[in-house]
Amino acid sequence: MSLPKCFDLLNLDYFVNIQIQIENVQTATELQDLVNEVYGQISLLESTLQSQLNSLEAMAELIINPVNLPQVLAWIGNFINNFLKPLLNPTIVIPAQLAAVAAQVADLTAAIEAINKAKFPDITIVIPEITIGCEL
Description:
It is a single chain. By secondary structure, the chain is mainly alpha-helical. The chain has a domain at 12-67. It is built from four helices and no strands. The protein is extended.
């Protein structure tokens, strides 16, 4: 069984939800806070996408076929620096990100359990397991 795709081209539900939140604000301060949060998230999304695009554009130079030894050597250097290094960089970054997420999940779980015990001792809060539910 294959996993579903993680991301659509664009999550339109996010923008629809923002529109609803905008329509339901009660104060100018609430509107400004929402605007700051949303445009900050959109800026992060756009900068992430542009960064990925920039790394791919650097690799596009590799479609030029070298014709002599100096060009072959330059091509190999470009292949390593513009393709292999960026391609393999996630193997360094992602494990650190996964460890950081796991630490934050552990902290959240402890906080949820403490609040549950203190405020709702007779109610069991079920904390779902973190699972892999999609693939890129």
